[in-house]
Amino acid sequence: MDIDVSINNESMTISIEDPHKYNASSETKGIIDFGQKFGVDLSPLQIERLIPRMIRGVAGCEGGCPSDAKSLVKQGFGAFKLSYIEGGILSADCSLENGKSFSVKIFPEFD
Prior knowledge:
The protein has helices at residues 24-36, 47-61, 67-75; strands at residues 2-7, 10-15, 81-85, 89-95, 101-107. It is an alpha+beta fold.
């Protein structure tokens, strides 16, 4: 499973070996550090809560059932616009205070 995080046109990818053993605090720190490189404070967005929920949604899709992802999209999360993309991809987008865009996409791992 891959997580793609982007701010405007700059992105970073995080590979998750086992979505059931995801280390939210470690990965969140890396994402917050990525934002700081562009003068953006991502901590108020609560990505440490968002990403594990997105991972659970996508992990549910790997068996061919998008219900977890679609449920999360329907529920919503804070300032993010959530989208389910065919193929099991889950996307969360928002605009930052400085006018930049922030996006998180979770891609399932298909064997």
